């Protein structure tokens, strides 16, 4: 295949070689036309939306604040839409308007169709497409067609770009029957990382495209070794879903959930460059509001609170408040045979059997506590209404019904048999009432485990795990909100209880779960996707595995694969498509001085340098490096616990044995750290390297 240098080269052309310079000039002029057409689209959008806003503003003149009308709401929405649309149409010279071209048909010399493929649709004044959005149906062939399955494609062209202009292209003749490799793809994958994550829209691989374009109704779980493109797939899937199901998702929402703010910052630019600036990207803590926690659990308490057994304990804690009919009748001073309700001279009787059947149905047929209470109340009102209809021959109205609902006997009975509950009160009772706790935890937690839930005093000191439990309790009381589609990255780290909270937010939607069991570093990290998918409420989700590594070069992948058998998970190792890259290990009596030298050397090359150390070693490292190195734009110092998902051209891992020594998860933290390297990895150590690394 051709190279992407400043001169275009084409090697796989079937027929007489075209005049490449002439072709390049034609492509550049197409780029100019597309750029001009996009500027026209910008102008037209600006003009139209400004007119509509003016009209609405004119109509709202002289209105008082209290007169806010639906027009004002429309104006607000329109303003927001306008800003987004204009931002999307604004030309950014650093983002090429197209990256590929497809010729389709049967006759290689006379194609029927010819499309340029880019990040967004661009049309000329007569609505003729100049660039097709990569998400359009026909563009799928750009990613999937091969010599083995041509899908009507005759030729595929990939463009090389530099400084906002086309520097070259390479052509692939799909009718020639020979597989080809792409220099443009290789260059793109090996390009130095200079900032946040980029989109991969120009070089999406067939196995990735397969996942990106899976139907909205399909829930997917993508397991993949480090650097196999899981995050990239998740983000491009989000963009594809929004394009294909815009209206539906505008109503029901699409959310991206990531492990921490660092990670969200790193991925934050991908969707906006794909024209999707309004997607909400949240950490799991923001989604569940756990940052509001003012207190911290002991590790033992946190572990128990995140365990799936807590789901049943919460269920019992709520439903155990339901009393029996005889107890409730006694409590409100009524006879065991039933309840007598007086209302404006009338006396209505509801017998024991009627009440008992109603209470049983309320418990059996309603999955939430408050829905059960409502069913019971409505049942009592209907029972009385039926008697009223028989006696008076008339059907009472709604006003009468709500009066009966407020009747002291009816209210007293409902409070006694089915007291109104608040999630916080239930949690407080679980933590402070020893007998109640024992009753709810029976057969689920040992007594010493139960003790970790105990809390002295009456005031609830909420921890992050407590907030997740409140969410669970809340869901036993009433239904939570639902969402259209959720993309959950680094999902292996979710606890069963966090997964259940997510499940409640996507009960009627679908999800894309991305992760790597080998990178699980929370105390409750998943060991099996099947189990986690069950907690996420999607046991039927399709499980797929990606194994081709696009980030980590072969020599470093080999090191990571040495560690894999020691990580206690059953996942496939990565196969890197990158033959470049360098792995060094430097023995330094003082690892801080060694790190300083390694960073200085790393800075001699292009790209970002990530320095990863045991969390506790980070302050000393920053001090040792001094302000010049520690604050260099190209150097980032990362505690091992938050390195997940990130990548750097050169990674310096400081004292790997310290990281590996972290209880239970040390080796996995080290596995994550070494797999952040795009080109070069230096291991700086004074202690012996952990033997699981299999390094000399
Ligand atoms: N088809 C592709 N073309 C070009 N670059 C790609 C492609 N697929 C993935 N990459 C690049 O490979 C790197 C790794 O991708 P990504 O972060 O999505 O992997 P991951 O599987 O989520 O990794 P990890 O498990 O380590 O977080 C990124 O820089 C991404 O842009």
TrEMBL record:
Keywords: ATP-binding, Helicase, Hydrolase, Nucleotide-binding. InterPro entries: DNA_helicase_UvrD/REP (IPR000212), P-loop_NTPase (IPR027417), UvrD-like_ATP-bd (IPR014016), UvrD-like_helicase_C (IPR027785). ATP binds at residues 224-231. Pfam families: UvrD_C_2. SUPFAM superfamilies: P-loop containing nucleoside triphosphate hydrolases. One of its GO terms (molecular function) is ATP binding. One of its GO terms (biological process) is recombinational repair. The keyword Repressor does not apply. The keyword Kinase does not apply. It comes from the Bacteria. Residues 203-553 form the UvrD-like helicase ATP-binding domain. One of its GO terms (cellular component) is cytosol. This is ATP-binding domain-containing protein. It comes from Natronoglycomyces albus.
């Amino acid at each position: 295949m051709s190279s992407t240098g400043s001169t275009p080269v084409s090697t796989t052309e079937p027929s007489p070689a075209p005049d490449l310079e002439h072709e390049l000039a034609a492509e550049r002029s197409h780029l100019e036309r597309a750029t001009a057409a996009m500027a026209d689209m910008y102008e037209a959008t600006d003009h139209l939306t400004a007119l509509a806003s003016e009209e609405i503003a004119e109509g709202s003149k002289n209105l008082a604040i209290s007169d806010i009308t639906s027009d004002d709401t429309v104006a607000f929405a329109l303003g927001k839409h306008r800003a987004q649309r204009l931002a999307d149409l604004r030309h950014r010279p650093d983002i090429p308007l197209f990256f590929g071209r497809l010729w389709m048909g049967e006759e290689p010399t006379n194609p029927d169709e010819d499309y340029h493929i880019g990040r967004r649709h661009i049309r000329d004044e007569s609505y003729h497409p100049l660039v097709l959005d990569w998400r359009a149906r026909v563009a799928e062939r750009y990613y999937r067609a091969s010599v083995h399955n041509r899908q009507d494609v005759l030729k595929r062209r990939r463009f090389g770009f530099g400084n906002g202009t086309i520097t070259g292209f390479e052509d692939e003749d799909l009718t020639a029957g020979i597989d080809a490799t792409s220099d443009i793809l290789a260059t793109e994958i090996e390009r130095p990382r200079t900032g946040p994550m980029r989109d991969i829209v120009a070089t999406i691989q067939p196995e990735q495209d397969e996942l990106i374009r899976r139907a909205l109704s399909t829930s997917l779980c993508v397991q993949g070794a480090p650097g196999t493109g899981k995050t990239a797939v998740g983000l491009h899937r989000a963009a594809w879903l929004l394009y294909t199901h815009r209206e539906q998702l505008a109503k029901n929402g699409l959310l991206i959930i990531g492990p921490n703010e660092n990670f969200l910052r790193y991925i934050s630019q991908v969707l906006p460059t794909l024209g999707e600036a309004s997607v909400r990207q949240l950490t799991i803590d923001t989604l569940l509001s756990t940052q509001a926690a003012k207190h911290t659990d002991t590790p033992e308490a946190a572990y128990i609170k995140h365990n799936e057994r807590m789901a049943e304990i919460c269920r019992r804690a709520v439903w155990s408040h339901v009393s029996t009919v005889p107890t409730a009748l006694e409590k409100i001073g009524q006879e065991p045979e039933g309840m007598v309700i007086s209302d404006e001279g009338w006396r209505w009787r509801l017998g024991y059997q009627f009440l008992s059947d109603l209470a049983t149905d309320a418990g059996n047929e309603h999955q939430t506590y408050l829905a059960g209470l409502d069913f019971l109340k409505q049942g009592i009102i209907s029972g009385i209404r039926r008697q009223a209809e028989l006696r008076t021959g008339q059907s009472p109205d709604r006003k009468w019904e709500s009066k009966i609902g407020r009747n002291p006997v009816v209210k007293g009975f409902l409070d006694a048999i089915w007291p109104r509950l608040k999630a916080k009160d239930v949690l407080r009772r679980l933590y402070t009432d020893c007998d109640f706790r024992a009753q709810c935890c029976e057969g689920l937690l040992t007594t010493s485990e139960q003790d970790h839930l105990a809390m002295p005093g009456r005031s609830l000191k909420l921890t992050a795990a407590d907030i997740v439990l409140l969410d669970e309790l809340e869901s036993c009381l009433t239904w939570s909100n639902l969402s259209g589609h959720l993309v959950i990255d680094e999902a292996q780290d979710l606890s069963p209880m966090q997964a259940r909270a997510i499940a409640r937010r996507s009960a009627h939607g679908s999800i894309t779960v991305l992760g790597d069991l080998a990178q699980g570093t929370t105390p409750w990290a998943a060991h099996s996707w099947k189990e986690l998918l069950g907690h996420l409420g999607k046991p039927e989700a399709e499980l797929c595995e990606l194994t081709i590594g696009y980030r980590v070069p072969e020599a470093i992948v080999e090191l990571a694969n040495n560690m894999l058998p020691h990580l206690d998970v059953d996942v496939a190792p990565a196969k890197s498509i990158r033959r470049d890259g360098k792995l060094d290990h430097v023995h330094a009596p003082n690892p801080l001085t060694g790190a300083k030298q390694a960073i200085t050397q790393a800075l001699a090359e292009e790209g970002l340098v990530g320095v990863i150390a045991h969390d506790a070693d980070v302050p000393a490292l920053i001090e040792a490096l001094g302000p010049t190195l520690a604050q260099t734009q190209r150097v980032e110092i990362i505690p091992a616990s938050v390195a997940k998902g990130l990548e750097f051209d050169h990674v310096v891992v400081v004292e790997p044995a310290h990281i590996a020594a972290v209880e239970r998860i040390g080796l996995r933290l080290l596995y994550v750290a070494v797999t952040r390297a795009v080109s070069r990895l230096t291991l700086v150590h004074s202690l012996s390297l952990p033997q699981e690394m299999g390094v000399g």
